Structure formats: C-alpha cells, structure tokens
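pasting for ref
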Amino acid sequence: MTFDERTKRRLGRDTIAWLVTVTPSGQPMSSAVWFLYDGDDEVLVYSLEDTARVRNIEANPKVSFHLDSDGHGGGIVTAAGIATIDRGYPAADTVAAYVDKYKGYMNSNAWSPEWFAGRYPVPIRIRLTKVRSW
C-alpha cells in the first residue's frame, strides 16, 4: 500500500492511535493503543492477554485504525485493516524500535521494558489495507 508522505510521518511519529474492533454482536469497540509502524503497510500493537480487543480480533480480524486530528479538525488519518494475533512474534521488550519509541512513557509510569512485555504479552499485527487522510 502506498501512503502519502504526511501520512507516513504521522504513522512513524504519533504515539497514540485508536484501534477499533467489532464485538460478536456487531458493536464497534475502540481502544487507545501504543503502536509501531513498519514503514510499509503494517502496525504492531501489544495487548493485555484477556481482553475484549483480543477476543474480538480472534472472532473477526477486520479492524479500523485511526490517528487523532491536529486539534483543528485536519490531519486526520483513518485506516481499514486486517489484524492478526501473532503469539510467535517477539515480545515488546525485544523489539528495539518499540522500546525506543515508548521508553519515555514506560519510564514515566515506572515500568521497565521487561515489565511492560510481561503485562502486554499479546502481539497484534495489523496490515493496513485502505487509508484515508485529510
């Protein structure tokens, strides 16, 4: 998938995104998440183990992924994607780019990367299939 440069910058720079999954009854459910963009068409999220988000993805891998606006209604990025729970993927504390991106947040919460990886052990890989930005 090809993204414009502004969208690539946002995906690489922003630290909080909204991941929207769908419950079995069809209700959309949004969660704020930390994420890592791979520079191509995939983002990586780590989740708590026993969450509706994980169960929803296991039942229906179609998700939406959104970045916030610039505070004035512009700069919005919304994406459709296919999520995969990838339990074979490396733990968060071993993904150097993820640790580098969120080390400050971890430190401000008194979390080590190892603690974070133990608390959020479920890797979710999201392949972005359609992106809109304005």
